Amino acid sequence: MMVHLKERLSFFFNSRWLVFVAAMWIQTCAGIGYLFGSISPIIKSSLNYNQKQIARLGVAKDLGDSVGFLAGTLCEILPLWAALLVGAIQNFVGYGWVWLIVTGRTSPLPLWTMCILIFVGTNGETYFNTAALVSGVQNFPKSRGPVVGILKGFAGLGGAILTQIYAVIHSPDHASLIFMIAVGPAMVIIALMFIIRPVGGHRQIRPSDGLSFSFIYSICLLLASYLMGVMLVEDFIDVSHNVIIIFTAILFILLIIPVVIPISLSLTQEPQEEALLSESRKQDPGKSEHDDGQEIIFSEVEEEKPKGVDLLPASERQKRIAHLQVKLAQAAAEGAVRIKRRRGPRRGEDFTLVQALIKADFWLMFFSLLLGSGSGLTVIDNLGQMSQSLGSDNTHVFVSLISIWNFLGRIGGGYFSEIIVRDNAYPRHAAMAVAQVVMAFGHFFFAMGWPGAMYIGTLLVGLGYGAHWAIVPAAASELFGLKNFGALYNFLTLANPAGSLVFSGLIASSIYDMEAEKQAQQRHHGRLNLASVFSSFLNMDEPLKCEGAICFFLTSLIMSGLCIIAAVLSMILVYRTKTVYANLYGKSRT
């Protein structure tokens, strides 16, 4: 009996589904950057900062959220728990020090030092993100799309989840939110960090996996719907503290429910590791060549094989290539041909970052992401001004809505791109192109400013933007391998701040100020009286404010055009990688 119990516990703690569920919980801590808007007012008032100084702290936060080179490198050379611990320490030190300064427990520091603290604290979440994704794609090599989509989705919902937990504290001291941001994620990471690890997921493939993913998707949809309902209720109705506690308790229950999967699997199913190992070795598209070091790959095979062999059914293709390798090996032994080692990996094998940077496919992926996600982030960054320019005062409603659509886009992007890959052996970026066309329509609605345009625009742009972050990491792991996935992923994430800097910081803001200045001049000429002259003389004019659809008309049309260009780049990548995906996933169709 005791032996049986120990076996069950061993199955449970080594289950890839337990690792996945723990990664989902960790990803809720990877959304601390979304809470900057909630803590910036208390920082501003406590330290007597102006808006420009707060904006600089915001830039430091964005950089910390995006610069993950160190996280990617450490995830390659250290155990994942050690990388998570580094991230937890950074998060605790960075935001903990900010809390000490804001509450007057230590002396204030110069602005540049505060920027460093915000950068260090927010940069901790890149370790959470990278470790969760690396463990996910390694443990689920045959289900990368759903895994990445779900994990990135939970990162997007992290801000809403932490905000709801903070509502329970109900503290009049708003600085306590900073304390929670410093301490809460660190406690969660330390509790779960030893669970996050590769556990030989390719040996745990079971027929029930599809049902398990369906259950997780159901929980995700229920969680998104619940959070949206709670946010709307708390915004429009003055609910009591006891009701908020009940709301938060239900939220915790929804977050805990997925652990039912590893528990039920450990109780009901016997492992079939040895049988599944050989099968997964045949099917696993992401396995490293280092795992099969004895296998000799001749560059001549690529040169000698017939053109149509890659499109044959998997079993026939394997036979043809094996037969050709035998012939070449015999010829080499007899001295008839000279065998030369292939230089560098092929797509679908393990690339280092340096090797990937010289590949056209990698840069097609990067610039497609830059144009698509950069245009989406421009909307997210300017959503308040966009809604105000169209006459809406409930900006927080649209912020909440686009967060939910972003989450559903990540979930849906992973799900539908997996169907394209799994059922059709077709490149995953076909789904990316569709998402970018959807975003182009969303930007067009913003440009027109029609009634309801804000609702439709946030829906389409939110879904499309979220889909990028489910599709790109999965595609990168398929085309450039799993071994250096952390470094590859964190380089690709640089497309986000780069796109935001150019599209939001330069294009959108410049056009908005230009239109606002035109309207200010028209108002000035329309009412040239003593009061306006006097206020202008004293430089007492209010900040420039633009009203009407014209404010973001040109910006939105430019963003729409950029999304179309991004879709074209995605389709070029689809054309270039069709054979690669036929090789990787053609087996599932036979």
TrEMBL record:
Database matches in Pfam families: NFD4_C (PF23262), Nodulin-like (PF06813)
TM region positions: 20-43, 63-89, 149-169, 175-199, 211-233, 239-261, 351-377, 397-417, 429-448, 454-476, 488-512, 552-575
Localization terms from the record: Membrane
Entry keywords, A to Z: Membrane, Transmembrane, Transmembrane helix
SUPFAM superfamilies: MFS general substrate transporter (SSF103473)
Domain Nodulin-like, first and last residues per copy: 16-263
Domain NFD4 C-terminal per the UniProt entry, residue ranges: 357-519
Keyword Methyltransferase: no
Its membrane topology: Multi-pass membrane protein
Chloroplast found in the keyword field: no
Example of a GO cellular component annotation carried by this entry: membrane
Source species, domain of life: Eukaryota
Matching InterPro entries: MFS_trans_sf, NFD4_C, Nodulin-like
Gene3D superfamilies named among the record's database cross-references: MFS general substrate transporter like domains
Family statement: Belongs to the major facilitator superfamily. Phosphate:H(+) symporter (TC 2.A.1.9) family.
Identification of the protein by name: Nodulin-like domain-containing protein
Organism: Anisodus tanguticus
